[in-house]
Amino acid sequence: MDFRESLTMAVKTLTASKLRSGLTMLGIIIGNASVISMVGLGEGGRHYINEQLQSLGPNILFIVPGNRETRRLGGLEISRNLVLADANAIAEQVPSVIDVAAENTTPGLLSFLNRNANASVIGTNPAFITVRNFTIGQGRFITDLDLQRTSAVAVLGNSLAERLFEDQVPLGQSLRINNIAFEVVGVLELQGSNLGVNYDDAVIIPITTQASRIVGRTSPYGIEVSFISATARNADSMQTAEFQITNLLRLRHGIVNVEEDDFFIQNQDTLLSIADTITSALTLMLAAIASISLLVGGIGIMNIMLVSVRERTQEIGLRKAVGASQNDILIQFLIEAIILSAVGGAMGTFLGVSGISLLSLLTPFEASASISAIVVAVGVSGSIGLFFGVIPARQAAKLDPIVALRSI
């Protein structure tokens, strides 16, 4: 019996029991769809995180209070001696840096007429808009003069401005933050969220005004900041800037030993590398979990094929009696198993790609179907069909034709 005849017979046999064949393929369909969807979700998450980190600004460094060990242990007893004066010193004394922004974030209650909103109140300096690569949509940003005078001026995030002022023009309006009047001087373009802060739903004020009117002086060393962000002159200056900032802050804070550091510096490249490592591990874990359903689907194929061998004992006996060899019977059942897994794999691939497309439409993740994931999923499903089809195929091939014919 040639291959074409075996293939034709296998197709006829499977289509004769459509419901059973469909249920047999279900495990493979779900497995393929799960693997492709999970890998696509992981890739979408990786792209999303990378975009968020890159949107922080080019060639950016973050100086954060507390040393790495303290942060690793959960942020307990983090020192509070990173202050505005440190940011000013970096801007003035580090030649490899072009802009420095200090930032301190506190919660606040905002009100305008009869409308109220809880939002993040961000105290910062004028360089913030440049360092963070933000854009002003209306009005202006805070200035050095606002900092010097501790002016009660505010720049609103785009979504917050729409919530509080609706159809009214926010510029020049009086807004109350924690019951203190501020004049709205600007509105940001849509920015999205990063570093855990949604800047579209935040209000930005001079950091000196925040310290004197909103939170008060919380550090004995000056105006406390949550972190400092600095822009290096170019990508090649990143390591130089990190080295110079480290030496300057150790000198200012009186630190002699590295173990005594009360700050640490994180650059954008390191953050991207960490994010890639984490998301790649999560993607692999999700794919491994989803692959379990492929194994279950393979076991389902084996079980159904074993049942099929029992039901088709007479057919096998007749075929052997008229001259079919063991190899003919073996190939016949192997083809049936491979068809089940291959068709299930194709249907699962279509379902997985459709799920990824739907995910991209409904979420901010730009998920995409990975060609490698599709190839691997289909290849694995086909291999599973071949592997789990071998046992029932060999059992069928070894049937004694005399014993099989006696059951007629």
TrEMBL record:
Matching InterPro entries: ABC3_permease_C (IPR003838), MacB_PCD (IPR025857), Macrolide_Exporter_MacB (IPR050250)
GO annotations of cellular component type: plasma membrane
Transmembrane residue ranges: 21-42, 281-308, 329-351, 371-391
UniProt keyword terms in alphabetical order: Cell membrane, Membrane, Transmembrane, Transmembrane helix
Cell compartments where the protein resides: Cell membrane
Major place of residence: membrane
Membrane topology classification: Multi-pass membrane protein
A matching Pfam family: FtsX
GO MF terms held by the record: transmembrane transporter activity
Domain spans labelled MacB-like periplasmic core: 21-247
Segments forming domain ABC3 transporter permease C-terminal: 288-401
Family: Belongs to the ABC-4 integral membrane protein family.
PANTHER family assigned to the protein according to its UniProt record, in alphabetical order: ABC TRANSPORTER PERMEASE YTRF (PTHR30572:SF4), MEMBRANE COMPONENT OF TRANSPORTER-RELATED (PTHR30572)
Record's protein name: ABC transporter permease
Species of provenance: Leptothoe spongobia TAU-MAC 1115
